[in-house]
Write a structure and sequence with these properties.
Elements: E1 15-16, H1 18-47, H2 56-81, E2 83-84, E3 100-105, E4 110-116, E5 127-129, H3 133-138, E6 146-151, E7 154-164
Parallel strand pairs: 1-2, 4-5
Antiparallel strand pairs: 3-4, 3-7, 6-7
């Protein structure tokens, strides 16, 4: 491989926070215990109406059942392979998986992010993938570090002004108050 060619970056393990794992489990339970039985009943009722080839409710219901079953298979496989990160790092002033980070850019604007697994990405809340260029550039960096990160829009420089491992007050979108449990 020539020096000018870029090697693809390796994917991280399938990491997830405890809340992310719980969200996947909750979705699985909802689909399996509530949504699938409801749609199955609707399909059964529609089938009793006669000619299935022109019965839109039957056709749509069968399609919806296939979608639900596909999502259930996906969730089951994901839950089998994810690694739940439920411990605090040894150095709480450094950026690791699960951290909430506040960054100041060169224009002195504050940006807030949380580094999460691919199943938890929520850009509106600032939840970015551990595989995102910004997260990769921040990993292992410490509070008060200046970090230059190559992003799709170009090189950006940030100053790390805060690192949290418990949900900060500015993250109001969730329901949990603590993300990690300290374990021996």
């Amino acid at each position: 491989m020539a020096d000018t060619e870029k090697k693809p970056l390796p994917k991280r393990a399938h990491l997830i926070t405890p809340q992310g794992e719980q969200a996947l489990k909750d979705e699985y339970e909802f689909l399996w215990r509530k949504e699938r039985p409801r749609v199955t009943q609707e399909v059964s009722d529609a089938a009793k109406q006669g000619d299935r080839s022109e019965n839109a409710e039957y056709i749509y219901g069968k399609k919806r059942l296939r979608q639900i079953d596909g999502r259930l298979r996906f969730l089951k496989k994901r839950l089998e392979i994810v690694t739940v990160v439920d411990r605090l790092p040894a150095d709480l002033s450094k950026v690791y998986f699960g951290a909430w980070i506040e960054l100041e850019d060169e224009a002195e604007a504050i940006h807030r992010y949380r580094i999460v697994g691919e199943d938890e990405i929520d850009l509106k809340r600032g939840y970015i993938s551990v595989d995102a260029p910004l997260a990769r550039g921040l990993m292992g960096k410490a509070l008060d570090d200046e970090v230059s990160v190559r992003l799709p829009k170009g090189e950006e420089t940030y100053f790390i002004v805060a690192v949290h491992y418990q949900q900060p007050a500015w993250d109001t979108g969730g329901t949990s108050t603590a993300v990690f449990e300290e374990r021996d």
